[in-house]
Amino acid sequence: MFFAFIVPCDAQVNSPPEQIEDPVARNIVEKADLVRFPVEGFQVEVSIASTQSGQESESRKYRILSKGNSNTVVMITEPASERGQILLMKGRDLWVFMPDVSQPIRIGLSQRLTGQVANGDLARANFAEDYNPRLLRTETIGKEDYNVIELIAVDRSVTYQRVVYWVRQKDNWPFKAEFYSLSNRLLKTCKYENYQTMQGRQRPTRLVMEDALRSGEQSVLDYSSMKLRDLPDKIFTKDYLKKLD
Fold it and tell me: In CATH, which of 2.50.20.10, 3.20.10.10, 3.40.50.10490, 3.40.50.880 is domain 23-243?
């Protein structure tokens, strides 16, 4: 089975600190969210290749159905032996359905899906609603200027407790992110690459996630075949999962 029920080892019970609202930072994050994915209902294919030092790459493929950044279904399409396993997200509530288990199982966004990819990395990519943003500084990398934003989780249910996020100033393109635990330990980094036109605008079609704790371990996510779809609300219900293929 591809769903590993693993909770990060340094998870804490502390509440995240309160932040003063930063409307400039929030506007940047909202625009960057729209660069990554449309707000309309859509379908996209994702291939994930994960490597560990000294081992062969492991590949998996998924189909994502998403609507409004708060309703998502993630279906595994390869390997064939695991086809039929499905993630369902509604708001920040997440369940996994497996064909040999009668009822969906409640799981966490921060639990590992595969390689360096957490469940929430595929099921929920809504930084604007999940985090309180604060503009830290601006940086010049190469010839480009970037806004560097700190994102603090609104509660413990979100995928990461703290994110530092680089967004290009001129067009709000995500550039890279650092993901931290509640104890402020750097867990992994992500680079947003290979911008191509999908559904009317340039979007990052490749994400490279690298483990910050174990050198040489990374996952590369490639997005393709994005298309807008009319997705009725009934799709995003536990009772409907068995009908999906």
Answer: 2.50.20.10
